[in-house]
Amino acid sequence: MYAIIQIAGKQFKVKPGMVLNIPTLNVEPGNKFDVERVLAYSDGKDLTVGTPELADITIKGTVVSHGRGKKIIVFKKKRRKGYQKKQGHRQGFTQIKVEGITKSKPAAKQTTAKKADAEAKATKKPAAAKKPAAKTAAKKPAAKKPAAKKPAAKKPAAKKPAAKKADSASKGE
After folding, report:
1. Per residue in 19-63, pLDDT tens?
2. Could you tell me the sign of the dihedral formed by the alpha carbons of 113, 116, 120, 121, in that order?
3. In the chain, which ranges are continuous DSSP H helix?
4. Using an 8 Å Cβ cutoff, are 63 and 33 in contact?
5. Annotated domain spans of the chain
6. Each residue of 128-151: pLDDT tens digit?
7. What is the pLDDT of residues 80-137, one digit of tens each?
8. CA separation for the pair 2, 43 (Å, rounded)
């Protein structure tokens, strides 16, 4: 028996009695908690996949401790620029123990919803005889505006023949 759960945007495969590290939760060590998002559940025979999650599966767990993971080194460098930066980081985690995976019946929620709908229909008053609505004049569609006129295409100006240079005439004199 196992389940796929989602906590803080990460997915984990859990089994009863399993101890695992998850992103930090704001729960004191020794306290119990329930997982809200169960994405899939298998009892060994059948696999049930939620769309997007299963409401009838509950997973109970206990917080064992809080801690910080192994240190990683973040090293940044830009070659030929004289830039180097070394930085360390330790990600926090919460260690939990999965106490059990239980399957409950969601029928209670569905029956209450059906009862509420039935009561709403019963309390609804029958429609009284309505007066005929006054006829409104049908609106005519607005007249279409004429399309914008495009500017007339300019014709290329005819080239004038090149005038003879006056300099050649003045040189001859």
Report:
1. 999 999 999 999 999 998 999 999 889 999 998 899 999 999 999
2. positive
3. 107-123, 166-172
4. yes
5. 2-72+86-106
6. 556 666 566 666 777 777 777 777
7. 999 999 999 999 999 999 999 998 765 544 455 555 566 666 666 555 556 666 566 6
8. 7
Which residue in the block uniquely carries the two structure tokens 């401790």?
65
**SS3 for 140?**
coil
Rounded to 5 degrees, φ, ψ at 76 are -115, 140
CA 44 to the chain's CA centroid: 32
Pairwise CA distance, residues 98 & 164, whole Å? 103
Q: What CA–CA distance (Å, rounded) separates 41 from 1?
A: 8
Sequence-ordered list of residues with C-beta below 8 angstroms from that of 172, at least 6 positions apart, any chain? none
Q: Does the predicted TM-score (pTM) go above 0.85? A: no
